[in-house]
TrEMBL record, chains A, B:
Protein name: Putative dipeptidase
One Pfam family in the UniProt entry: Peptidase_M19
Domain of life assignment: Bacteria
One Gene Ontology term from the biological process aspect of the record: proteolysis
GO molecular function: metallodipeptidase activity
Signal peptide: none
Length: 349, 349
């Protein structure tokens, strides 16, 4: 089979976190930016049934924009996307709300395509503790059971919004590597959402993945952050935990109205205003840095990584090669991963 | 690959309808009876969320009894089941209640494994009319839309419990063949659930499938029905609509308490008692005929079919070959069926 030039000439570009106001324009920008795969959020505070309604909306997009995107279920769908000039869209939850109090839903949501699930979103959940709580008692009884079931079916534990002790316990308790899909190191920019050296080291030693965020509240100097500062931070993180554990998770929230960041922060859990990482003076979405406005700007990061001294193979690994390997190993059921007979019989709609 | 003797020596045995009180005993009996695939009901009146809870219960059975059964999603799973000495379990609904009023759920339930959906269960539904209603206005506006969507994703229309006009309209409106998974001809035993010659002919001419029921209320002489009478009826039906459109759909409800038949009949739609096909004198499950008590008795039907003059190939077709061909053609999305590129990448849990 003859492949488009781009397929042969570079490795995959994978973004492990976006929550845009989805439109043909954005999918077209993914193509212009050469983005082969994106992990998108389909639940912040949604119940199971509400999350299913979000899948229904995605199914309509997969039909309507079938020339631009496809539903990514397995790592091999990224190869299919590259061969057909499209972007593979993988589903994930930023909160365990879609499994409600029912561990049986873990396998069900995996059947529906969920591939990442955060154990917490800022607050205490049924499973673990979020990064904005005062106390962090660690994984709950149900949390330990759910992590084991996630390991079995191939649903990746994501601790991006979790508190420190819960995160370390998740790394310890999980039999398969976990991910922090979108955050930055606290050594570079101190924020409750950014991660300590302790977490970064434990994550790397356990074979986990860390995705660097482009969300201004996670950046040093926020919207004014320079691409050089961002890439120097990546170089320091590579020294701390190994370049093979690093990728991107931009947290791009393109074209979203501020009502959406309100929903993320407030959900249905409070009657008060909660500004999250923002403030009364800056309640809405902050401006993106000039060098990363949308999916067409990944080349700026690629150039920046070369500029701070990464070699070509390292740059390719950070831009998507590491995520591709992680997807290959961690989306399949544990039984399949262990070398048991697999049965390739699914047919894409 | 070397196959067990049974795989080489006979065609598949497929039962297109059971709703047993599932247990290891019953799965063991499926193996003893050489039953390669069973279409099981996972919803009578359940909402979407309640149906998902039934899938969760099946997922636990698939884990616990993995030496006896596996989740059948595609026709090729029947070959896998035969190669590994197990029975493939396919999901279906006897009522469209799990899709609620939401056409987007058609694709979602197909993703979860649903392969048959009745448009009605005895009563009027949002989609069509059941066989116990006085009036039969035919497919509704939503019914026509849902049939088209079922055709697209590969969810088979089943009219077993539907009224005559609705059934004929479903055959006419559906772009892919439909099924009547479990019923008998009215010419043999007049019952509201049994089907007219008009329906049988239209079903055969459209490439559809008819599954013969072993439920005593559908049998001439009910529990006292003889296997010879049953097989003579099959021979007459073959003359009417062609042997290639015939299979079995036993409607076996083994080990179920009578509370279950109450749920089937009454659901949540009435506060009165409804005896359905039963009566005040015989309100519960009737006794099975002596020659078909459970999954170990399919050989009695096979012998009976030989006894009324069917040839070996015809018997094999009725015992499962016809259903296998129907599963192969009708569970895959229309796009895949039409010869578009398919992408075998699913991995069984």
């Amino acid at each position: 089979m003859s492949l488009p030039q781009t397929f042969a000439s570079r490795g995959p570009r994978i973004d492990a976190m976006q929550y845009d106001n989805w439109s043909e324009k954005i999918f077209q920008q993914m193509r212009e930016g050469g983005v082969d795969a994106v992990h998108v959020t389909i639940a912040y505070h949604e119940t199971f049934r509400e999350m299913v309604a979000n899948i229904e909306a995605w199914n309509r997009r997969f039909q309507r924009y079938s020339h631009l995107i496809l539903h990514g279920k397995w790592a091999s769908d990224i190869a299919l996307a590259r061969q057909t000039g499209r972007t593979a869209i993988f589903f994930g939850f930023q909160n365990p709300s879609p499994i409600e109090d029912d561990i049986g839903l873990v396998e069900v949501v995996h059947s529906l395509g969920a591939r990442f699930m955060q154990l917490t979103y800022n607050n205490q959940s049924l499973l673990a503790t979020g990064c904005y709580e005062q106390e962090d008692p660690g994984l709950t009884r149900m949390g330990k059971q759910v992590v084991r079931e996630m390991n079995r079916v191939g649903l990746v534990v994501d601790m991006s919004h979790s508190a420190e002790r819960s995160t370390l316990q998740a790394i310890e308790h999980s039999e398969r590597p976990i991910a922090i899909t979108h955050a930055n190191p606290a050594f570079w920019h101190a924020a409750l959402r950014n991660k300590s050296d302790t977490v970064l080291k434990a994550l790397g030693q356990s074979g986990g993945m860390f995705g660097f965020s482009l969300y201004p509240h996670h950046l040093k100097d926020k919207s004014a952050c320079s691409v050089q500062s961002f890439c120097e931070m990546i170089a320091r993180t590579a020294e701390l935990m190994g370049v093979e554990h690093l990728g991107l998770g931009s947290d791009l929230c393109q074209d979203q109205p501020n009502s959406v960041v309100d929903w993320m922060r407030v959900g249905r859990w409070t009657l008060d205003v909660d500004y999250g990482e923002g403030s009364k003076a800056q309640p809405g979405f902050p401006d993106q840095p000039a060098w990363f406005r949308d999916n067409r700007d990944f080349h700026n990061i690629e150039a920046g990584l070369h500029g701070v001294g990464f070699g070509a193979q390292e740059v390719a690994a950070i831009m998507g090669g590491n995520w591709l390997r992680f997807f290959e190993n961690n989306f399949v059921p544990a039984k399949a991963q262990a070398g048991a007979a697999v049965h390739p019989h699914e047919i894409a709609v």
